[in-house]
Each structure stands twice: as structure tokens, then as C-alpha cells.
Amino acid sequence: MFKKLSLAALTAIGLSTGAYAAGGEAHVEDYSFSFEGPFGSYDQMQLQRGLKIYTEVCSACHGLQYVPIRDLSALGYNEDEVFAYASQFEVWDPELNDGDGDFRTALPTDQFPAVTSANAPDLSLMAKKRAGFHGPYGLGINQFFKGMGGAEYIASLLHGYEEAPECAPEDFPGNYNTVFTAGGYPPSCLNEEGHHTVPGSWIGMGQPLWGEDVEFDDGHSNSLESEVEDVAAFLMWTAEPKMMQRKEAGFIGVFFLLLMSVLLYLVNKRIWAPIKRKG
Ligand code: HEC
């Protein structure tokens, strides 16, 4: 019975993905990030490059309001560098000016500024928000089996801009992106059942990275391919700065569970030993 049911379920999933793909499923690339897998960890230099890209390009529109600036010390910056980084931002302090509030230079204890442009979502947690969007119907299957998460989504999204397909009228607003699925479609790109016939959809954000958008002091590549990975890794860090500690805690937990299993096994043997010997 159970076998039959699961077979039916599997077939259903298989069939539905087939149907979905026919409508043009967005393709999220499977990047291999340093922080993937049970032993993976963040690459500090990559996070520093990502921060630079965020600061020079993305922060024009996007905020990171849940990230304290002092956390940048985790990227390998010393106190002075974090202080200097903070001082480029202005924050609103409600206590200044006799309680009327005023702007002042940001300190490491402040958060990154909030959203700066209308409609541009805050990016602090975006990498986690979009983590489960892979695989059929956002079941998170690709995340589970291939370790693909929000960082893959963001890198693919930034790389997913293409010329609008022929079905779209030239004046359709937005930018065609093969990875973005939450946007709108021109009616001419829908079939009779209302399903879209092209992968992706139209996004309000114009292509932000083109390659060579920033210069790195150490001469590291600033190709588009490399930039999208760097900024995606950085946004994974903002969304989950304690990923390494979480993995470590997991290992310690598993270690103690194993230890307890061994002890229980030995205790069990000892308790039953006299009875077993009789038989
Ligand atoms: C000119 C302003 C602007 C810049 C610069 C910009 N963005 Fe955006 N971004 C937007 C807007 C507006 C949206 C919302 C688009 C929509 O929902 O149609 C958006 C949406 C997003 C999303 C969410 C997509 C989703 O699945 O909902 C991500 C991720 C993102 N941007 C990342 C970036 C990164 C990384 C950079 C820097 C490399 C960047 N953006 C630069 C304006 C901008």
C-alpha cells in the first residue's frame, strides 16, 4: 500500500515538473561556494570583495538594516577599519537636537542603513528568504540534495538578465530575467491556460552588475561571473553570519549522541549478561 502510494506521489512530482518545465522553469545554477557542505566555511577574502560590491553598487538602492556594522570584524577587518567603514554612512538619531532627532555619522554600533530606494527590498535576509525556491514548486528539493540555497539564487539572478523574448512587446516595463519568477508577464507570453511560455519573468531591477564594476586592490578578477559569486556569498553571510558556529554545534551534538549510543550499548550488555549466561 505504502509502496503504491509513494510510487504515485513520485510519478505525480515527476509529471508536474515536466509540465512546469514546459512552461519554462527558471534555471538556478549550482555554484560551488566555499561554505557548502558539512565542513565548508566562509572565505573571508570573498566576503570582503562582496562587501565592496555591495557598498559600491547595491547600496545605492538596497539596505542591510538588520546587520550591525561592527559584525564586519568577522570579515577580518580591524577596529579602525570598521570605524572608517561606518563613518561613510549617515544615520538618523532620534535623541539628537533635544529629542527632535538629527542625522549623524554612523558608528560601528549602528546597523547598516535601511532601504534607500523605493521598491528595493532589504537584502539582510534575502539569501535565506529565497533559499527554498529551488526544485519543483519550491519544495526545496535541490537545496536538500544539492546544497543549493539562496546564494545560488542570488548569483543566478544577477547573471540571469537576457534580451526580452520575441513574444514580449518592446515597451513592456521591467527587465527580462530568466531566473526571477515573482514578476509579471506580458499577456502575449502566456498560453491559453494562462501559463507563461518563457522561463523567468520581468523584474523591476535593471541589471546591476556587468563585470568590471569594482576594482580590487589585490587585482582579483572582477569579471561578471566572479562578482556575482562574491556578492552572493556576502549576502549569505549577512543572512547567516553564524553558519560556521551552527555546523560546529551540530558536530558536537552528533559526537555526544554517538558517545551515548556506545555507552548505552555497553550498559545494556552488562545488565543482561547474567541472564544471557544462564540461557
Ligand atoms: C537602481 C537600484 C538597484 C540597484 C543598484 C540594485 N538593485 Fe536589487 N532590486 C532593486 C529593485 C527595485 C528590486 C525589486 C524588483 C522587483 O521586485 O521587481 C530589487 C530586487 C533585488 C533582489 C530580490 C529579487 C527577488 O527574488 O525578489 C535581489 C536579491 C537584489 N535586488 C540584489 C541586488 C544586488 C546583489 C545588487 C548589487 C549588485 C542590487 N540588487 C542592485 C533595485 C536595485
UniProtKB/TrEMBL annotation:
The keyword Disulfide bond does not apply. One of its GO terms (cellular component) is membrane. Residues 1-21 form the signal peptide. Its cofactor is heme c. Heme c binds at residues 58, 61-62, 205. It comes from the Bacteria. The chain crosses the membrane at residues 249-268. One of its GO terms (molecular function) is heme binding. It is found in: Membrane. This is Cytochrome c1.
